[in-house]
Amino acid sequence: MTLIKSISGIRGTIGGRTGNTLNPLDIVKFTTAYATFIGRGLATREKCNGEKSAHPRIVVGRDGRISGPMVRDVVCGTLVGMGYEVIDIGLATTPTTELAVRWHEADGGIIITASHNPTQWNALKLLNREGEFLTAEDGAEVLRIAELEDFDYAPVERLGRVVVDDTMNQRHIQSVLDLRLVDTEAIRRRRFRVCADTINSVGGVILPDLFRALGVDFEILNGECNGQFAHNPEPLEKNLQGIMDKMRQGGFDLGIVVDPDVDRLAFICEDGRMFGEEYTLVSVADYVLAQMKNEKGEKENANLNTVSNLSSTRALRDVTEKHGGCYAAAAVGEVNVTTKMKQVGAVIGGEGNGGVIYPESHYGRDALVGIGLFLSSLAQKGLTASQLRKTFPDYQIAKNRIDLTPETDVDAILRRVKEMFAQNPEADVNDIDGVKIDFPTKWVHLRKSNTEPIIRIYSEAQTMDEADELGKQLMKVVYDMQ
Q: Is 459 a catalytic residue?
């Protein structure tokens, strides 16, 4: 059983002993530490700006996991005990909760979800007052407070309260419809028919309403929000044979797959083949950049910059440069990508795992925004999904993993890999996040996961065989050192 404390929040398996898993006592400790961190920030602002709130406010949303109600009750009770007003938005996607923090002008937010992890996992994802994930520095301070148990609870006269708000899903949908580049009229005219796999989590709650609002006919697979995931919830091809088989039977224009908290998005073509999760961001970025370039005109110096993480396909760089923009890479982790996006003024960014970040909406991965933009692109171009996929540079990514043992020295492995390629004149070695080795026509990236006790080894080349062989070379190095 596992408890992971990282830039992606507090994540662990349910049950077991304290300190080793995500259980009620540890949930209380980390929620209290987070509330203490938020409270200290409020106190500083009040001192500097004269701001004052009778009850500071935290938004709480959760995905459909079996353990979700238990974790929510512990989190909400703890926040009340800390003197906070809790805005409980119920079953909600990660991007819905992020947006709700801003809409409620809250002081922070907690998303109860373990994203793509299997059903025995859950997590606390921690947000700041902008509805964005905490920085690494702020996350480290929360962990420090938790370790020291450096906190005090509110006296009885300062206890908080829980307020239920069930309107955020509809407001999220409306915000997608209101985006300038979501062409609702073109989508309605196209009369799409889609099949969506919502993994028996919150996608089954919100996506049907989004499709109705867009005038899209739909069929939902695994649409009951009961937390009984019908298959491994990570939206990879090996886990999606059910919907791929459904698409091969015909009658649908597009297959849509989301993970349990609906921040990752994968498409399946009308013929049952994967569009490629790496190409979710590529296709949406190509549409956004083309629209913005047309709006601003060839003569104007439009900002058409993009960002993705180091483990994402080169195709985004190629598409960005085609439109006259500049591409930048960030360390893996949503907060790292959004930080880089702000630094370079990127108009769109995200991660190769199917995460689309569109600042005109908010700085967070959002599958609903991705769906709206992708359908707009298909509708305007009059293409099928398979035809659209052929318009992009074709790279193949192999995604491998190695399970860690307590004895694994990840730092030593990374040093060894770096040393192996440091003298190779054709290799550009980047160590801002694990080790990435760029060659003229391929790359390989080895790093410890933020969310699971594994080492991820991603490699990309012009053929899958070449990409997989490059990844396996690095895997052998790891195995030899274990």
A: no
